[in-house]
Every structure is written in C-alpha cells, then in structure tokens.
Amino acid sequence: MNGAETLLQTLLNNDVDVCFANPGTSEMQFVAALDRHPAMRGVLCLFEGVATGAADGYARMTGKPATTLLHLGPGLANGLANLHNARRARTPVVNIVGDHAHTHKELDSPLESDIDAAARIVSSWVRRPATPADVGPDTAAAVAAALCADVPGDPDPSRTGTSGAVSTLIVPADLSWSPGTAPALRRTQRALQTVSHHDIDITAALVTGPEPAALLIDGTGLSESGLKAAARIQKATGTLSFCPTWPARLRRGAGVPHIQPLGYRAEAVGRQLSGIKHLILVGAREPVASFAYPGRSGILTPPETTVHRLAPDSGFDVADALNRLADAVTPDLFAPLPVPDAPPRIVNEALRTKNWAQVIGALLPQEAIVVDESITEGMETLAPATANSPAHDVLGLVGLAIGQGLPVAVGAAIACPERPVVCLQADGSALYTISALWTQAREALNVTTVILNNRSYAILRAELDRVGAGQIGPAATALLDLGQPDIDFTTVATGLGVPATRARSTAELAELFSTALATPGPHLIEAILQPT
Amino acid sequence: MNGAETLLQTLLNNDVDVCFANPGTSEMQFVAALDRHPAMRGVLCLFEGVATGAADGYARMTGKPATTLLHLGPGLANGLANLHNARRARTPVVNIVGDHAHTHKELDSPLESDIDAAARIVSSWVRRPATPADVGPDTAAAVAAALCADVPGDPDPSRTGTSGAVSTLIVPADLSWSPGTAPALRRTQRALQTVSHHDIDITAALVTGPEPAALLIDGTGLSESGLKAAARIQKATGTLSFCPTWPARLRRGAGVPHIQPLGYRAEAVGRQLSGIKHLILVGAREPVASFAYPGRSGILTPPETTVHRLAPDSGFDVADALNRLADAVTPDLFAPLPVPDAPPRIVNEALRTKNWAQVIGALLPQEAIVVDESITEGMETLAPATANSPAHDVLGLVGLAIGQGLPVAVGAAIACPERPVVCLQADGSALYTISALWTQAREALNVTTVILNNRSYAILRAELDRVGAGQIGPAATALLDLGQPDIDFTTVATGLGVPATRARSTAELAELFSTALATPGPHLIEAILQPT
C-alpha cells in the first residue's frame, strides 16, 4: 500500500466514495490506485471547474462530501470559481490537490505556483501532510473539516456554526508513491446546532405581537418539514416567510407550502418587506444587494425594520427551530396547503421570458432536481411557474460565480441516479463549463438541460442602467451581446456527445422536454427566447 | 470624465489599446466608457481564461501589454491558469479587475472574495487605488510594472531582470463611477539589460576552449539575429545551441539557423547534453524536469557538466550578447545556413504522430505564427518538420498549464492581423478554453486551428509508467481516455461559429489545411490520429 492508497482507503473509511477528477502527472498514483479500491467511483471531468461544481452538486443532494482530484496550482485555479460557489452555499467539498515532490519544489519547474495561497481563498481548512504517517490522519481531518465535524485535537473556531465547508489537502507526489501507513478511521460528524428555548420564546413573542413580522429562512428550514412549520406560523400569526433569491437547496411544489424568494433587485425586496417591522433571520443572512449602485445602500432591509436572529446561520438545525416555534404559537399540527391552481393552459406562442418557465412547471416530473442557473430569464418567472409542480428540489446559484449549472447537474445526477435532473441554464454562463455535457454523456446521467438562449448577457444590459453608466454606443453593446455569431448550443452539445434539439415555441419546448425526460441519458434543449 | 474614463485614457496614453474583456456589473463603467474612447479595442471573450490567454498571445507578438477586464474574484480566478502561463513566459499583461464599492465590501455580498490573494499568485505587482486621484497614476504604474519599466518613486527590486510580468490593478466600482482626475501620461519603458564585456570575454574563452560547450538560449536570443549569431559561434567553435522545449517565442524556418529544442523527457535531454562539459545559459534557466519521478533527479544537466550564466534570464538583451560573443570568437559575419532538404514527399496514409507535422511543415505559409500546444503529438515531430518551412514564429507552452493554445491564437491574430496564425492544439487541452473559437469567429481572425485528436490524455498514459504506478486497470484507464463518447470537435467548432472539417489522412489534411489558409477568417481542422 502506497500513500495514494492510504489516502483513498481513508476517504472510503470516511464515507467519501466519489471522486470528480482531472488529474495530471502528480496525481497518477491516485489514478492507478482506483483499480485497487473499486468502491471509489472516479468520474473524469475535462475541466477542473466541472469537477468542483460537480462535487458541490453531489454534496447538496447527499449531505456528504465528494472529493475532487486536481492537478497542481493551475488545476486548482481552474476550479476556484465553483469552489467559491460551494463555499457560499456552505457545501462540504474535499479537494485533493497533487503537488510536486518535496525535492522538486526548489527547482521552480514550469507548473510551480503557490497552491496554498490559491486553496486558502476558498477553503476553511488547508493542509499538506509532512510525512507518510500524516496522510491517513490528515485525510480524515480534511473530511471532518468539510463536514464541520469536531476533529479531536484540532479545534478550529472558524468552523463553528457552518453546515459545510471546502477543505483542501495538498499532497506532494513523493508521499503518494512512498509506502503508506494504515488508513485512518472515521471521524465523528458534528450534528447541526440546536436553537435555545430562550430564543424560541423571544421569537414567539415577536411573531404573536402586534407589529408585522416576517421570517427569512435558509438552510434546513427550506426542507418540507421547515416550510410546513413556517406555514403553520403564518396561519396562526400572519407572519410571512421569505427565502434567499437563489438558496443552496429548496423544496418546492405540490404538497410543500410555497415560500416567496426575495427579489434579486433592491426595489423588489423593498416592496416585499414594505411595512414589516421585524425581520427574523432563521438560518439566513441579512439580505444585501449583490452589487453596489451609486447613491444606494447595499442593505436591503428597510430602515424601519428591526432585524432579529433566531438561528444565526445555516449551521443550526433551522427546520427544528421552525417546528418548535410553530409548536409555541399554535396547537395546529398542519396548515392548509395552498390549493394548486389548475396548470395554466399553455398557448402555443414564441418562447419568451414570461412563458418558458410555465412549460417547465407544467411538465416537471415527480422528485425532479432542478438546477437553477436561469438568472435573468428565471428570476421572476421560475418560482411561480413551479409552485404547483410535483414536489422537487431546487439548487440555486448562491455564490453568483457563473458556470455552476451544468457541473452541479453532473454531481446531483450522480448523487441521485433514480431522480430526473433538470438543468435550467442561461446561455452566457453555459460556455464557462460546457464540457460538463461530455461527462453527462460518458456517465449516462439523466440530465435534461434547457439552455435559455437570449443571445446576450441580459443581466448586464439591465445593470448598465442601474450603475448610471449613461448612454451607451456600439462598442459597449458589443461586449454584452452573445450574437455575431449566434452560438448554436444544439450543435455544440451534439459534438460533446449529448443529443440536442431546439425549441422556438412553447409547443416545441413542451414536446421536446417531455421526450427528453422519457428517454434515458442526457439531453439538451436549446430554447430560443424572443426579446420581451 | 469618471474614474473608468481616467483609467481607459491612461491606458491609451501608455500605448495599451486592446482590452480582452469578460465584464460584470462592477465593470460596467469601463464598458460604457469604450464608446467615448474608441481608440481602445474591446474584444469580448466568453470565459476569463480566454481573455488572459489572448492577452499573453498579443503581448508575445507586439512586446507591449494588452489589458484584460475581469469581474471580481471569481472572474480573476477563471483567468489564473493562463496568467500562470504568461508569468512563466515573462509576458507583460495588465489585468483590470473590478471590485465592489468600498462601502459594499463589509456586507460580504455573494461574490465577495479575496481578490488580492488571487492576484498575488500570478502578479509581480498588485495595487488597488485608494482615491479617485490615484486611478491615473496607479494605472500608469500597472503598465510600467508589466513592462518591468522603471517607475519613478516606486522601486521594486523583484522586477529586476525580467522582460515582462503580470500586473493587476483592482478597481473598486465607486472609483469607476466617481468623477475622474486627469489621466496619467506615459511612463518610461526600461530597456533590456546589457551583458558586460567581462562576461562576454569569459564566455568566449569557454567556447573556444578545449572542452565541449553548449549554449542554452532563450528570450531575444531566439530571434533571427540571435540564432544567426549562435550559428556563427557554432561554425567557429563547434559549440552547439539548444533552446527550451517550448519557448515563449522562437523564430524558425528557412533562412533561420535551426536550433534544437531540449527534449521534454530527462532521457532525451541526457542524450542531447551527453559529453558537454560546459552548459552556458544565455537568457535561459537551468533545465529541470517538469515533474519529479521516483528515484530520479529533477536536474537535467548531467553531473559532469558545469553550468555557466552569460545572461541570467530573458530580461537581458540576449540577441545582443550572442552577437557580441560571435564577434569575439569569429570574424565571419555569416554562417552558412542549412541547405533546406527537399520537402519530404507526403505519402497518402492515415494520420499518425509521425506524419501530421510533415504536412503542416510542407504547407506552412510565409510569416505564419505557429501556436504550439500540440504536446505529445508534436514534442518530437514539429521542430524537424518545420525547420525548413518558410520563416515563422512559434509560441510555446512555457508554463504547462493546458488550455493556452486557442486563446493565445486569438491574441496573436489581433496583434498581427496581416499574418496567418496556425494553432496546433491537443484535444484534451482544447476543451479548457474552447469558447476562444467564438471570439475568433466574431473578430474574423485568420486562425487555422488543427486539433490533434488522439482521443486521450496521451501524455498521462506515458506518465503512468514513469511515476512507477504499476499495472493499471479499467478504472485508471477510463480517467485518461477521452473517448466514450468521442468528442466531435468539428461539430463543436461549427456550433461556436467556426467552419470546421475533419481529416483522417495526410492527403485530406494537406487539402483542408491549404484551403483553410486560403480562406479569410477562422477555420478548424480536426485531425484524427491513429495510434502509433
């Protein structure tokens, strides 16, 4: 057994059994060891941003980390943007990054770079084993750090209260090929923290008091259990509930009380929170604008609203807190669920912002996993259109680094092979990590991708006005325009091994979406959207 | 004039007039300002790694930096791998990275990350202007830092002796939209350093002495002037010349003395340097292995060889040093050029490692720019096959972070619109930055890309053996195999707007390559290579 095998077996001992890999020479020992440890599933990704995004999607659905296998500093660098998203979503991810052998570092060979500095940008925990005997314990510690579990003898206060984190283990090549030591056993996983009775009582007084209150819920509060508790609280007290615009994971659809996402723009949030005197954060952060704009505050809570914290972040058991709060304010065990509207009759017309999501909502299968990187095209239309679809989970773009959707879909499909994955993907963002389609094809994943092709960075067109950039001319317009030439996503997907079709009308989208869902393996539908 | 315009006009005052951009909200003021400063050419890239690679290619051909325009930390992160390559190639690149407004930083909004830490990984100079009055001077300083020019009042010893570097200016959004101050004027560019007479004399004694000596040349020594001087030295003294395996820029072809690249693998270098008693580095670094292997030294210079330094790095005027050395050892002003062999008759057969480069070499047009990311397929075949082609420049993968080729071709074509660009691109690496094809199409660049499709990470298959990974099974094999499904690059390129064809034989490649070169705009040829 060499060091690479010690590492692999320790991962397996710690219930980490999927590796999204884009290896190089310094990681060849791990690659070779896969055949001797067949319980570890290696999934080849053709770009590191696919591997890191897939690990994020996998962990959001399983609650346990996958590992990535990345090649030196540049390989890690290519994966950083989706690790940023994982960090923001508090997803557990374990990165294994190969490094040169100790003796080789001083030669400053071509790929030498500061791996540790790159890792620290996104990781709550970074370590490089110093000796072969460290490989096992350090690997177990990496898993524990990703799970924010207690690591005996390794207290790290920065991990307190997070539900998951990115950890990075940097492994010099000589430790991989040196004789290994015994793999380490499983570390204890720390449970979510529990909100105190005192805090429940204080919040109960607020929501039953005379002044309008609202809950802003995140974390496990967006599970079916949490949302049902929120609905009980609303029925008993009139307290509204909101969630972040794009939460890491949200339960939605028939049988699940609908929760209103906060709008992406400050004006929308202002309308939503208008008149609310008490905003109670339940596992959520205080809402802030994604960007600053001249002369506007970035704090979205209205000035007359007082902010309270029931659970300071998603590291608390938010669903439990909501259920206890509901028990405190009402004896009713159930709130009436919204009566599903009859699905809107889909009129056959050209696809636009206002109608594409209705098609998806009408045809979404039971227990779908919806990966939402629809951005401009979905920010106001997707939630209402899918509120009464069969119950499903939605995975959102918490960290706003685009290029997450296709990789997260890979990871979610590997996590839940029995569930259909629907990836709603903006066009501009899709090209960042387009090779994820190839991995979907190789692994025969049941992912239906809908590219929302509006042929522009539409969100930036809106932003130009909002930052006060004034009148723009052809040079600026060209930098926001994805036409000239038009990207033919149908053809690109075909070249990467994914069957693809194009829809221009609601009827075409409905037919192609149904067919794709009924056919095993990945499919891509390019929805050509007309300007609104 | 706002701060963004101060920045743009300062760049123009400093002769920086091309911007490879993938902007977001925090960079909208720059985008809007482009129409008021039409001398700045904005080039939209659909992924930041394309923007940074294009800036590298542009500067290698012009000697002056382009600027990138990147969106916050994740945008910079996506560009890091090709900035690593630029750093290793000592290419001047100026990154402009937008950041949130000062007041917005403390809100820790979704895209917040440590931009400065990411920048420092690849940059010799990182600064964020503190006030509007700093924008002009700091922008001029960023250009000077990239050019390793003297910056009055800003001595930075770390820049000494480099010919170009990556500099990063991080611009908070509020400085872009605030009223600007006067743009700064041009800074002085520092000339390359000159080698001393004493060092020339010492080297002359070595190369005329009794023991076999060889030159390892890089930097401006790989220009026509430098290579002709090296040929004079060889004729007079028998001193051989070598260059790095993949130098940043190399002149090659008819009328240019051929220089032997060092092999990629240690064994090859050992053969090349066998019997050499004195290895003289002329602008080059001491040769080291790209990776460590169990039980082998990473230092490639044979133990019996003494290393000498004539010019310690490529920040010296290496061509001048070689010419003065040649003058010192021989009165001859010219060395006989190699008599071009008759071009090999191309037999029509299936494409393989051994014959594809001969087709390229036979048909390469005058003054081509050859972007070489052919890796395994070209490492032993390209140099001999093109030694007698019409004179051309070769741009290599100095930093070994794959995914450089297609973007560097974008930048080279924008730098030299009158010259044909030929991009020789390995298949595995191509997908990293495939959207560069779209930019080639939009800008109607004269780039002919040849994808060398061997359907594997071929170099890693060879490396598995070399790291002593032993027998491998199907799990490991799958992680190095780019088939299942085969990637159809012809189709992918078509979808991105680049006309594409496929060649399976030498005759097909010859015909398609000639046609592509004769037709304006970008083309892609997918060369399907049979196993050797």
TrEMBL record, chains A, B:
Gene Ontology MF term list: acetolactate synthase activity; flavin adenine dinucleotide binding; magnesium ion binding; thiamine pyrophosphate binding
Residues of the Thiamine pyrophosphate enzyme N-terminal TPP-binding domain: 1-106
Keyword field contains Ligase: no
Taxonomy, superkingdom: Bacteria
Name of the molecule in the record: Acetolactate synthase large subunit
Key words, A-Z: Thiamine pyrophosphate
Keyword Phosphoprotein in record: no
Upper lineage: Bacteria, Bacillati, Actinomycetota, Actinomycetes, Kitasatosporales
Family: Belongs to the TPP enzyme family.
Domain named Thiamine pyrophosphate enzyme TPP-binding: residues: 401-526
InterPro entries: THDP-binding (IPR029061), Thiamin_PyroP_enz_TPP-bd_dom (IPR012001), TPP_enz (IPR045229), TPP_enzyme_TPP-bd (IPR011766)
